[in-house]
Specification:
about 300 residues; 13 strands; about 25% strand; Rossmann fold; six-stranded mixed beta sheet; alpha/beta
């Protein structure tokens, strides 16, 4: 059985379409990621999947339940960690965990084994108020509270946003251990590098799903050759490349400029070196971020053509 099946899912806020008839499936025991920037529709989607928001159109089931009709069952079987820290800041670490355990008629002692690996990191601070915790410790507490009732599926909406790199690494290692125990995990993130942590990812932009595949499969979707260029002034080089009619998908990429070329790369390389004598050009393997930028630009262009 599929853990989640969605078809034609749509959500609007007045004149804004947050989800534009999207469809996807998540397998049981899978770690499935929704990757996209702010405003892509990820949070609206997560609120629909967890029964907190009603879609305007389309169908969705979570472990066989309809989030609208069967909202009580959905909330019983799901663990949900929203993007914003939503625990009680005036309660201590231990009091927050006790409170969430009591809601589901269980206790910390009964299900401690479920959260031990995670909670052990913050247990030395169990008497500290949650509002006084660091960003990484808040996320670990929130994850512990989402797991304390032994959910069948875990929803994490941008769990590592604003967290330091070390805590991000620890958090994903924890999720890997949870997945190895058979838990279905659905996670969203704006960080493209986190896509490799998932079994499959859906790339979202402006309420649309651009592509769904394994991380390695996503990287293969860009079939045209990709190149990188560096120069004495990358911003000027980027502007110059965008003015060339036979150059496409020109984007800043760290200390480099990535682009594709529909003409002769040898001729273009000579032109680049004439424009900037310190410039260098090399071929490069496409990353998930390169593919996302390419597909999102195609979506923007298609909307412009319609207008």
């Amino acid at each position: 059985m599929k853990a989640i099946t969605a078809s034609g899912l749509t959500k609007r806020y007045k004149n804004v379409t947050a989800l534009n008839s999207i469809s996807f499936e998540v397998a049981e025991g899978e770690m499935f990621g929704f990757i996209g920037p702010d405003g892509a529709g990820k949070t609206s989607l997560f609120r629909i999947m967890t029964s907190l928001l009603v879609p305007d159109d389309g169908n969705i089931t979570v472990l066989g339940y309809n989030p609208v009709k069967d909202y009580k069952a959905i909330r019983r079987i799901s663990g949900y960690m929203p993007g914003r820290f939503s625990l009680y800041p005036d309660l201590t670490v231990e009091e927050n965990l006790q409170f969430f355990a009591s809601i589901f008629k269980t206790s910390i002692e009964e299900n401690y084994h479920l959260v031990k690996d995670i909670y052990s990191h913050i247990e030395p601070f169990k008497n500290r108020r949650a509002g006084k915790l660091s960003g990484g410790m808040k996320q670990k507490l929130a994850l512990s509270c989402a797991l304390i009732h032994k959910p069948d599926i875990l929803f994490l909406d941008e769990p590592t946003t604003g967290v330091d790199p070390v805590s991000r690494q620890e958090f994903w290692e924890m999720l890997g251990r949870l997945k190895s125990e058979g838990l279905t995990i659905v996670v969203s993130t704006p960080y493209m590098d986190e896509a490799s942590r998932c079994d499959r990812v859906a790339m979202m932009h402006d309420g649309n799903i651009l592509a769904t595949d394994t991380p390695s499969g996503i990287s293969q979707l860009l079939t045209i050759p990709l190149f990188k260029a560096t120069g004495s002034n990358n911003y000027q080089l980027l502007k110059w490349l965008r003015d060339r009619p036979y150059v496409a998908d020109v984007f800043p990429f760290g200390q480099e400029v990535h682009f594709s070329c529909t003409g002769s790369i040898d001729n273009l390389s000579k032109e680049i070196c004439e424009f900037d004598s310190n410039a260098s050009v090399h071929s490069v393997q496409a990353t998930v971020e390169d593919v996302f930028l390419h597909l999102s630009q195609n979506l923007i262009n298609s909307k412009s053509d319609v207008l």
